[in-house]
What does this fold into?
Amino acid sequence: MSSSDLELTTMTTRPVDRPPYDEDALPAYAPMEWTLKEIRNAIPPRLFERHTGRALLYLLRDIVGVSIFWALATRIDALSSHADVRDLLTPPGGQILKWSLWMVYWWFQGLQFTGLWVIGHECGHSAFSPNTLLDNTIGFILHSALFTPFFSWKFSHHRHHSSHASMERDEVYVPKTRSDLGIPQQVHDESIYDEILGDTPIYTLFMLIRQQLLGFPAYLMFNVSGQKHYPKWTNHFDPASVIFTEAQRNGVIMSNIGLSSMMAIVYAASQKFGFAEVVKFYGVPWLLVTHWFILITYLHHTDPTLPRYRGREWTFQRGAAATMDRPVLGWQGRYFLHDIAHFHVIHHFFPMLPWYHGEEATQYLKAFIGPHYASSDKPIFSALWDTYNGCQFVEDEGNILFYRDRKGHAVRRPVGKEQ
It folds into this structure.
């Protein structure tokens, strides 16, 4: 081997030296100064118009889609057990075909169920129709059918929108602080972070799966990821919960009636058709609704580059800009999920703007707020893994905050902050 070859080999195998972490060298962030009225004036008024007929067509499309997938699924077991199929594929091959087709059904029906959930969400914002009674009726039916307490969640969700990114008042995805995790204020040895935050990849994967499948029920029942100053046992089913005002209590009761009715329907269906059949046709797609809802909302509101605010630094428009658009699942996300992931930032600024105007309105928003508009096209499951590991906690002090990772490192700093 020549000396030049040896030198090349050494260069390609030598570990890359990364510069030491320097917080002062991080990109500085200055929050926006525009008023909400200035931002709204940048978007054509026609995009705020709600068209009931158009919204009903989207709803009809989703109901037809659910019906088609359901009807096709009724043929899976018969097809895979047919004598000709068993002869062609052998009995084990027929089983593989059977469960492969069920997985295809679960994937698409899970997305279609989620689309119906999204329409219920739009009803909760009165973005479906100017008719409040119609919004509440359709939203109540859709969300009850998917085990979401429509009015209860609508009330807390409105509070989330009105206070997003406020450490003191936001309703969900409230970051843990340094003291919450028991991390010392002054850390001179990064091994301390490993002792407190270090997890094996297998354990991290387990925690992610737990979040994806149980995160939404845990939030509704136990206020997981909600405001830490709420009393113990805060939940979305108690009409006297601190989440709700006295005027909202009848809505909470109505939501509970809707869920109880759905439980009775599922029980009756299990008695008639068998529990396994209910799980296959309804249970697994419903579980995927929970997965997609948590994945989308978590990645909308959580990223190392998105700020959190305390005190007077928070304003509604700053909180709205502290969200991120993500093209979840490409065309499938656009068709089945009604663009809820692709154009979420505009939704936080103007929740009553119809979802079918989101794409065009986003272009006007981007042009006006410029670098304060946040989006990422990172592959969604890679983004989920990176965000889960990179967003561990925020500091106890300061009025503009950014997440820190498992080593205590941030990727941005407030403008003017010096260490």
